[in-house]
């Protein structure tokens, strides 16, 4: 019996999600055409350069380009000519005039596919995060204009920084399909490698598939804001949020992840998804069911403001013309994504208040320089902290977690640090003569511990090895620091 020919694939939208998906589908052996309206991005990808920092992606991009399985174009008509399955991976940002999601890119892709003559055997697979009800609406558009073509929704759960690993080894696959169609069989064939490796598959209706994604992000955001709310109460009472979180984490029903207090979540997903979910709930007449997400958002934004206030306090109330170092610009480590970055929000607020702010980030410096010309973006930790009166650690890169406080102290004007991510060892920093402060932690020396808090457990991270850092900086790093990582949401 002749084997079924493998479907050919287009991936429309080649940002953090789409570029990774295109590369990984090629890595699985499929012939893939990546499509984007950004000609510069298409040129870069075609030349084997990733337009953003994502560990492991560049090598796979190049090997699949060389193998001839992967190519890129700006032409959606080429996608319709070339492919049987079209993955929609375009952005769904917050609308400028409301909390709702802006669906114009998704709608433009569907219009483009239809105008290019989407064939009756085609399958369109949405991966972008969309408000519940979107898939049914788009399916009706496709049914009217391209009879026989099908639509499925297959939300994506990858985390930036782990995107390749998450795409090739997802923790679950969710297929939103209509009954009686062929979409489920096609998706099972496309993802057969993962399914054979026992990845759970949830086959469900459109609405549930859309809701899984936004509900997951709402839950993660709620957990982060819960511990940040506790941190506010600790600040008012003298309690210690790290010890509180440690004690909570021993309860298996609560667990240790996402319980590290700090300056909160950011990025291109969680903030806008939490807001869009509330906006959609209001449209559906169930606004009160999600009104708590308004508080989740408010706690999150307050965490940034609290960090700014703490910096003011530690500068004696007057940040004007004071030298401030911010370590971190990306919204999370292992990424150069600065969309809605809490670190840059804090840095720009201090700049607005008159401080001279120097920012350093191992991967996001170029993006930060482009978007924030008013900030001084340094090329190294030393470049940022030299002469600083206060150092704020605002993104939990391992390069910062492993800093040697004694070595760093020699470069600053005043040894004062704000640990905005709860990742430094207060005893080590205080022992080296620093004033160590963190949100939700009293300004007293830490109590003696016989074991590290469980949620500060060691977890390896793929990121720039010490050997790749400038020699002048290697002495700044401790041999063994706390490797503290929550699997931060994308
Ligand atoms: N970034 C993540 O980690 C992640 C994870 C899961 C889900 N998502 C969701 O995936 C979607 C994309 O997110 P992202 O972070 O990759 O966004 P992004 O902004 O990095 O990429 C979007 C890309 O789509 C392109 N585009 C816009 N309109 C287009 C069109 N009409 N035709 C072709 N290309 C077009 C843009 O030029 C851009 O390259 C969003 O809905 C997001 O919520 C993102």
In summary, what is this structure?
The protein is an alpha/beta fold and 490 residues long. It is built from 20 helices and 14 strands. It is 41% helix and 11% strand.
Description:
By secondary structure, the chain is of the alpha/beta class. It has helices at 16-27, 39-46, 57-66, 76-82, 104-115, 134-145, 163-168, 183-190, 192-196, 206-237, 241-249, 270-283, 292-314, 342-352, 365-371, 381-385, 398-401, 405-409, 426-431, 471-474; strands at 9-12, 32-35, 70-73, 85-88, 123-126, 150-153, 173-176, 201-204, 323-327, 356-360, 376-377, 390-393, 416-419, 435-437. Strand 9 (323-327), helix 14 (342-352) and strand 10 form a beta-alpha-beta unit. The chain is globular, with a radius of gyration of 24 Å. Residues 454-471 and 479-490 have low confidence and may be disordered. The structure holds nicotinamide-adenine-dinucleotide. Nicotinamide-adenine-dinucleotide binds at residues 12-18, 35-38, 41, 89-92, 105, 108-109, 128-129, 156, 158, 160, 268-269, 490.
């Amino acid at each position: 019996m002749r084997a079924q020919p493998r479907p050919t694939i287009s991936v429309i939208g080649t940002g953090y999600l789409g570029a990774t998906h295109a590369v990984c589908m090629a890595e699985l052996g499929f012939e893939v055409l990546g499509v984007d309206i950004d000609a510069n991005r298409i040129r870069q990808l075609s030349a084997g350069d990733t337009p953003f920092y994502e560990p492991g992606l560049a090598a796979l991009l190049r090997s699949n380009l060389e193998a001839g399985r992967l190519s890129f174009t700006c032409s959606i008509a080429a996608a319709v000519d070339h492919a049987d399955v079209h993955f929609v991976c375009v952005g769904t940002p917050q609308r400028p005039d409301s909390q709702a999601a802006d669906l114009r890119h998704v709608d433009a892709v569907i219009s483009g596919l239809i105008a290019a003559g989407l064939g009756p055997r085609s399958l369109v697979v949405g991966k972008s995060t969309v408000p519940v009800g979107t898939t049914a609406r788009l399916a009706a558009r496709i049914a009217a204009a391209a009879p026989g073509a099908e639509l499925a929704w297959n939300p994506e759960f990858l985390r930036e920084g782990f995107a390749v690993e998450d795409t090739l080894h997802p923790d679950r696959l969710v297929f939103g399909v209509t009954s009686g169609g062929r979409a489920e069989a096609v998706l099972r064939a496309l993802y057969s490698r993962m399914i054979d490796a026992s990845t759970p598959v949830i086959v469900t209706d459109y609405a549930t598939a859309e809701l899984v994604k936004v509900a997951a992000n709402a839950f993660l955001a709620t957990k982060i804001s819960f511990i940040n709310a506790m941190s506010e109460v600790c600040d008012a009472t003298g309690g210690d949020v790290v010890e509180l979180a440690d004690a909570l984490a021993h309860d298996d029903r609560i667990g240790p992840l996402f319980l590290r207090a700090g300056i909160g979540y950011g990025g291109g997903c969680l903030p806008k998804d939490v807001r869009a979910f509330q906006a959609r709930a209001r449209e559906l007449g169930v606004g009160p069911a999600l009104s708590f997400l308004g508080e989740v958002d408010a706690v999150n934004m307050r965490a940034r403001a609290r960090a700014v206030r703490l910096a003011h306090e530690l500068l004696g109330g007057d940040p004007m013309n004071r030298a401030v170092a911010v370590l971190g610009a990306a919204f999370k480590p292992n990424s150069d994504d600065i969309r809605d970055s809490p670190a840059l929000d804090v840095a720009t607020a201090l700049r607005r208040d008159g401080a001279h702010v120097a920012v350093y980030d191992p991967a996001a410096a170029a993006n930060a320089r482009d978007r924030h010309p008013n900030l001084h973006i340094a090329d190294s930790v030393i470049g940022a902290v030299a002469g600083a009166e206060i150092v704020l650690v605002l993104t939990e890169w391992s390069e910062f977690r492993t800093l040697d406080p004694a070595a760093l102290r020699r470069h600053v004007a005043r040894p004062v640090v704000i640990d905005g991510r709860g990742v430094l060892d207060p005893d080590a920093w205080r022992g080296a003569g620093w004033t160590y402060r963190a949100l939700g932690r009293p300004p007293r020396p830490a109590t003696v511990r016989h074991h590290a808090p469980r949620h500060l457990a060691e977890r390896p991270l793929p990121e720039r090895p010490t050997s790749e850092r400038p020699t002048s900086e290697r002495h700044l790093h401790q041999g063994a620091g706390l490797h503290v990582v929550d699997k931060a949401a994308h």
